[in-house]
Write a structure and sequence with these properties.
- This protein is mostly helical.
- The chain folds into two domains: about 170 residues, no CATH class; about 50 residues.
- It contains six helices and no strands.
- Helix 3 packs antiparallel against helix 4.
- The longest helix is centred in the N-terminal third of the chain and has 50 residues.
- It is flat.
- The termini are close together.
Length: about 240
């Protein structure tokens, strides 16, 4: 089996494993918070409608009473969550494999977790400093500006980690740290100064759980990629 075939096969299996782990944690810890935020968003819309229509009377809705009779389990949402998580896992696993080939740094059992940690830092942790995960009903900056800043932060953070890995000396550490700081010195796009319908406490809990799910996703991806790659290399006698 050729190098590219081994990397592709390992990426597919690792991406599937990481995707299922991500979807399981999301169903357990993240989706319930999104559903709760949607209730606040619905309540906010109803309040605006009441304010515009003087004929409508009655108390405003207050979560969770607003949709207390909702379904216990949304199979469609769960299915889409699993699909999106698996596709995310496959996509990032292929990117991880491509980076390992072009950087000439094979992924194996010894460094798989470190690869996963590097992916978490560059793709999740660093961008979240300026653009934390958002719930429905939260006020956000213009999407185009956010996408540009996010992509730039991911690329610069990845380059910084590569520099730190290749140059473990004072000069390399200095350059790496400067690169990591650049996106945050520039600053992420600011959201409009408008009140959000979601309570701050709920938003903080969501950010913590979303980051935990991403941490588990990346660690699973790196570890499984390294473990599968080494198994394939041994079977091929590489």
């Amino acid at each position: 089996m050729q190098l590219f075939q081994r990397v592709f096969f390992a990426a597919v299996l690792a991406g599937l494993a990481a995707g299922f782990v991500l979807s399981a944690i999301q169903q357990w810890r993240v989706v319930p918070l999104i559903v709760q935020a949607e209730l606040y968003e619905i309540n906010d819309v109803h309040a605006l409608e009441h304010a515009k229509d003087p004929v409508v009377v009655g108390p405003h809705l207050h979560p969770p009473e607003a949709e207390a009779a909702g379904p216990d389990f949304d199979f469609e949402r769960a299915g889409l969550t699993v699909l999106a998580s698996v596709l995310t896992g496959l996509g990032y696993a292929l990117v991880l494999g491509a980076v390992s080939i072009f950087a000439n740094i094979p992924i194996n059992r010894k460094n798989g977790v470190m690869w996963g940690l590097a992916g978490f830092v560059s793709v999740a942790l660093m961008p979240s400093i300026g653009l934390p995960p958002e719930l429905p009903g939260m006020v956000a900056a213009e999407i185009g500006a956010r996408q540009i800043w996010w992509i730039g932060t991911v690329l610069i953070s990845s380059l910084a980690i590569y520099v730190l890995y290749k140059n473990p000396n004072p000069a390399g550490v200095f350059i790496g740290l400067v690169l990591i700081l650049i996106p945050h010195i520039v600053g992420a796009p600011l959201a409009p100064a408008e009140p959000a319908s979601v309570p701050a406490a709920l938003a903080l809990i969501y950010v913590a759980n979303a980051m935990f799910s991403l941490f588990a996703f990346w660690i699973t991806l790196g570890f499984s990629f390294g473990w599968i790659s080494q198994r394939l290399n041994k079977e091929e006698g590489a």
